[in-house]
Specification:
Elements (H helix, E strand, L loop, with lengths): L1 H5 L3 H9 L24 H10 L5 H11 L9 H14 L33
Length: 124
């Protein structure tokens, strides 16, 4: 009866009640492609160029490949190409420099003043 008052079917209400967290919706991730890969024809060539020169920008590389293969690429594929290059850089690209920031808070550890005051002729 409460499912009807909420405007949902009994099966849906039962599903929500059986979940550990009713606010989180269960989604099954899909692993299949929903459409043909538009970069399939040129990606091996782009990959080879990225391995030889990883500092190449995605947009410049895309423009080069667009001029070389005008029938295989379109201007609208740029964002897809940039995403693919970014994913490649995260997985196989050059290692990023690791550094640790050092936040020095004045006076926290020790503050020493090595000024020789006798030469200033100050009296208190």
């Amino acid at each position: 009866m409460s499912a009807q008052k909420a405007g949902m079917s009994r099966q849906t209400a039962r599903k929500y009640l059986n979940q550990d967290d009713p606010l989180r919706q269960e989604k099954t991730p899909h692993i299949w492609r929903t459409r043909h890969d538009p970069l399939e024809a040129i990606w091996p060539e782009a990959l080879q160029m990225l391995r030889e020169a990883p500092e190449l920008e995605a947009k410049a590389l895309f423009q080069f490949l667009l001029e070389k293969h005008p029938t295989r690429l379109e201007e609208g594929m740029l964002r897809t190409f940039q995403r693919r290059v970014r994913a490649w850089r995260l997985e196989e690209g050059p290692q990023k420099e690791v550094f640790f920031t050092q936040n020095q808070i004045p006076g926290k550890t020790l503050a020493i003043d090595w000024t020789e005051m006798s030469q200033l002729a100050i009296t208190i």
